[in-house]
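G., before I forget:
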Amino acid sequence: MPRARRSTHVLKPRLRVLDGDTIVLGPGKADLLATIARDGEIRAAAKRLGMSYMRAWTLLREMNRAFGRPLVETSRGGRSHGRASLTPLGKRVLVLYREMERRARAGAAPAWSKMHRLLRSRGKSRNT
Amino acid sequence: MPRARRSTHVLKPRLRVLDGDTIVLGPGKADLLATIARDGEIRAAAKRLGMSYMRAWTLLREMNRAFGRPLVETSRGGRSHGRASLTPLGKRVLVLYREMERRARAGAAPAWSKMHRLLRSRGKSRNT
């Protein structure tokens, strides 16, 4: 009995919001927001994503500039010094970005399903 | 009277079909297929896209391997020597890829419209 055909192909939509040549929001910036929300700290989030603290701040500044207001707020004093969290705008932007990703994937799904059937599964020829 | 707010932000979905770490189809490969269909020649298409002839063949081989059959056919002799065209499979793959792009964009449109309103137009502050 032949083994079931095992597909290894996946569709990856990457959504980027551009302002001219500048990427104001994309997968990397969205992941930074999500990781700051999770870790509550910019330095920890940057480390987890394998980027420098300076790089994380550059990305945040680019987003803040594009949206005209901060997406992340940080505490400078007291017991919460060093803590960071998303502002209401930052939360909204992240939710909308994830929704765009989900809806883009869902929109592409019917055509992707047709293309998927045309793709050869790894290590098997079309004639076996 | 204030000038109308002029937005400069655009959403660019990039769809990639992955097989593990290999991109078997993405914007670059789709553009190569489209340009070969238009120019009728791999060398001319490669030149128009700013890639080497060898690079174009590498991309074509990767696609042919993924789909198990050629997406482009070339003429080796007679008056049509050097001409290239998409096979029926190649045409189908390009049509489906463009459809995926279109549908992904359409799916993301409602959330993008909401995000777009949060973005600051270039050179104007939110308060003017």
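Confidence is low (pLDDT under 50) at residues 124-128 of chain B. The CA atoms of residues 7 and 105 of chain B lie 18 Å apart.

More on Monday.
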